[in-house]
Predict the 3D structure of the following.
Amino acid sequence: MKNIYFISDTHFGHWFAVWFWNRPFKNIKEMNSALIDNWNSKITNKDLVVIVGDFFAGNKLFSKYLLRNLNGEKILIKGNHDFKFRYKKLLDSKDIKIYNKMEFSLDNNHFILTHKPMKNVPKGVINIHGHHHRKLLPSKYRKDRYFNVAVDHNDYKPVSIDEIVEHRLGEAKVDKFSIIEQIKYSSLNRKYAIVMA
């Protein structure tokens, strides 16, 4: 069965990413190569990966290179650096779907995927997000209701749904088939989809 992974803030091709966030790479080329290797060491082409924002910068050729060389079926939640002129290049390839946000449920728990953490997360909801590189969350947020999948906090690797569920809910059976169905086919998520005219 497919596994489900989440990753955020790869910033492939962003010239400032290495020095601005003090990432442990010599340059952007080394960072891009390490992130691709780390991605493909965990994700197979049978898996589903949700990129929770701030995916890449660069031209159409670079976007095609990334989509071709990164394993898995890919979905992007739009981040603050995923401007229209960037994600249009991705959509043109038809190899990725793009959303403003997503939701799914597991037993009595609800998960909401947004690039920036939500300000108020109700009880029984876990917000999978990215955006914050240097610290997991602003101090005023309840840490038990969030999970930051930015690469800076996860050894520059994707995080599986199993890891998130174990970390936030303890032991729980993960019905991956149901989660994939919700992510890909629910009418709720369809209304969050970005479709270019």
